[in-house]
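Hello Y.,

Per our agreement to keep a running log of every chain we model this quarter, I'm adding this entry. I've kept the format consistent with earlier entries: sequence first, then predicted structure.
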Amino acid sequence: MLKQFEVWFVTGSQHLYGPKTLEQVAANSQAIAAALNGAASIPVKVVFKPVVKTAEEILDVCVQANSTPSCIGLITWMHTFSPAKMWIAGLTSLQKPFLHLHTQYNKELPWSEIDMDFMNLNQAAHGDREFGFIGSRLRIQRKVVVGHWSDAAVQQKIGTWTRAAAGWHELKGMKVARFGDNMRNVAVTEGDKVEAQIRMGLTVHGFGIGDLVASVNAVEAADIDVLVAEIEKKYDVASELKEGGERHDSLRESARIELGMRAFLEKGGFKAFTTNFEDLHGMVQLPGFAVQRLMADGYGFGGEGDWKTAALVRAMKVMATGLDGGTSFMEDYTYHFSGAGSKVLGAHMLEVCESIAEQKPRVEIHKLGIGGKADPVRSLFTVKPGSAINASIMDMGNRFRLVVNEVEVVPLDAPMPKLPVASALWVPKPNLEVGAGAWILAGGAHHTSFSQSITADCMEDFAEMAGVEYLLIDDKTTISEFKKELKWNDVFYHLNKGF
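Predicted structure for the entry above:
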């Protein structure tokens, strides 16, 4: 429910123009804020704030924004000239992201009536440049959107930014439960949790698998009965798993695991979690179907202890609220090499979120050659063709890096009746050779957050808010230019603290 969040519309001016002009500035600003608040493409509330005319008023609204939990950012606009030295105290104290809207109230020049009164009132063309200078002088990352406030494209860009702001707001207060440790000897899923808390605000809480097992074992049989009945109604369930079937107890065990995990996460206020198939002592089966269902309800997840991907999946699910498509934990699993038609088959052992399913998922049980436990239940489906992104966040030592690859999900070349997991088939942009090559050069992880809802533009806004490095692999990417970008970024982040 993104309407619980507010973005404050803050207009800058000064007392130079007199009360009559300032009254018009306020009226125009209220009209713009109301229009943005009513725009279908902007999912949060846009709240008008009184026009700020002095350094004290600017500082006050910034401090109020910091202390208001529902405020996730500001939209700033200079209707008239607003001397930027007035903004220094406010902007240096502001802890929320802001978008600089470079617009003006009127859309076209009133050719036959324009006079100096009109010019004095409508000064955004140079008022916003003054404001832009101080933002750059203070080296503040912010979004700049240029165009008339009534244009659908402008509103869409603002809406995308507000979704990123909602994701950033979610990440800053997120608690991630890590059941077990990292998969042994794996590098990319590790990372500095202290630095992540300092930079991004998320906290990772480690628990022994026994803590989860205790919660699972405390589940009542009557609650399992209710959940199993719900599952049999919602899914296409294999006959052997239905009541009376020879594997029905396995479905009940999966339900027990789900109820225990859900209770644990709800009690602790966790929004994301990880598991590890190397750490299952006391578990009857690996929690595959349970994880799929929890992700479908909005939880973030990362396999093998991957807390960074778990947090990213949750943040992207928040960003995608109300949009078509879904967001899931994913892994680049295996390739189909066929020249210009080369593709990636994305999947995981079990844990792919049902929010990206093209058809009604089918619940089955199959052997799993790792983990050393009973055969796990899982839901099976394929993913609807269309545009999507894969996003991955890594700890590069001196900074976090977010790499995004735009992909195109395509239909299967042929059925895969023996593949017992949910999957997606896609072509990376610009193609597999360049897309995979650039990803590997960037150190991109094998785990990703896959989304058919969120765009690369939204992820770029999110990265700027989080202060993390952002790399995009799209249809314009070439390996030679991508290598240069990596080198430039290394220099920048090496020197950044000196800036």
